[in-house]
Amino acid sequence: MAGLDQAVAAVAAAVEVELASILPEAEGPQARLHEAMRYVVLGGGKRLRAFLVAATAEMFSVRGLAPTRAGAAVELLHAYSLVHDDLPAMDDALLRRGKPACHVAFGEATAILAGDALQPLAFEVLARPDYGADAEQRCQLVRGLAASTGSLGMCGGQLLDLMAEKQGWGLEAIAAMQRLKTGALIRWSCEAGTVLGRAGTPEAAAVLDYADDLGLAYQIRDDLLDRGGAGIATGKDSGRDRTVGKATLVDLLGEAEAGRRLLELRDRAVRRLDIFGDRATLLIDLFSLVISRKS
Ligand code: IPE
Ligand code: IPE
Ligand code: MG
Ligand code: MG
Ligand code: MG
To answer: Of the candidates 133, 176, 179, 263, which lies 20 to 30 Å from 164 by C-alpha distance?
Structure first.
C-alpha cells in the first residue's frame, strides 16, 4: 500500500502546516494555555481523521484548501477529546503520542482548559469564510461536527464507556458505545468530504455506511493493541483497559474472534463502496491499514 502511505503522509504534512497557523502562538497573558494547545495538537498523531476527509473529498474531485481545513478542524476536536480522555477523572493515562499526557506536562487545570479551548477553535475555523466552502456548506459542517461531538455523539459515548466498566455489557451495547465514542468523529470526517463534494444521496449514504463500520473497527483495533501491550508503538499506556475492566468487544469475544470481526467489517465496508469503482481505492486500502495498524 505504498500509494496509501504516501497519500497519508502528504495529507498529514498539509494538515500540520494548517494546524500550526491556526493555533495561537504561545505568547500573551495566556501563553501557557496556548503552549498546552500546541503541545497536544502539533507533531504527533496519525491524522487518520484528516485523511478520511481528504480521501472522501478526493472521490468527489474537491480541489483547494477546503479538505485540509476540515481535516484540521476534526484533528483539533479529536485532540481535545484525547486530552480529556487522559484526565485522572477519566482514563487516568500518563502517556499520549509518546509524550507525557497534557495534564502530566501542564497540570490538570490547564489540560481541562486546553481541551475546552481547542473545541471552539475547531468550530471557529470551520465557520471562517476563507477556505472555499460556501455559507451553506460551512453551516452543514459546523452543525454536523457539533452533533458528532455532543451528548449524542463522542461525549455521550465517553460517558457510556465509563459507565460500562466492570458491568458485563453485551455485544450490541458495547458496539453502540464504541460507535459513539470513536465512530462519531470518524463518521463526520467522511461526511465532511461528502458535504464539500456535494455528493448525491446514495453516494453520501454509501460513504457513511462505510464510515460506521470503520469507526467500530478502529476501536476494536485500538482495544487489541491496548491488550497486546503495544504501548511503545502506540505511544500510550497499555494494558490498562483490562486492569480497570473497560467494556471492549475484545474482552467479550476474545482476540481471535475480534480479529475475525475486523475482517467481516472490512468486507462489508468495501462492498458498500462498490458504486464508486476505482475511485474508492484509497478508502478501501485505508480500512485494511486501520485493522492491521500497529500504532
Ligand atoms: C485514539 O485515536 C483514540 C481512539 C479513538 C481509539 P488515534 O489512534 O487516531 O490517535 P492519534 O490521533 O493517531 O494519536
Ligand atoms: C477513545 O477510547 C476515546 C476517545 C473518544 C478520546 P480510548 O480511551 O480507548 O482511547 P485511547 O486508547 O486512550 O487513545
Ligand atoms: Mg477512554
Ligand atoms: Mg483512553
Ligand atoms: Mg484505547
So the answer is: 263
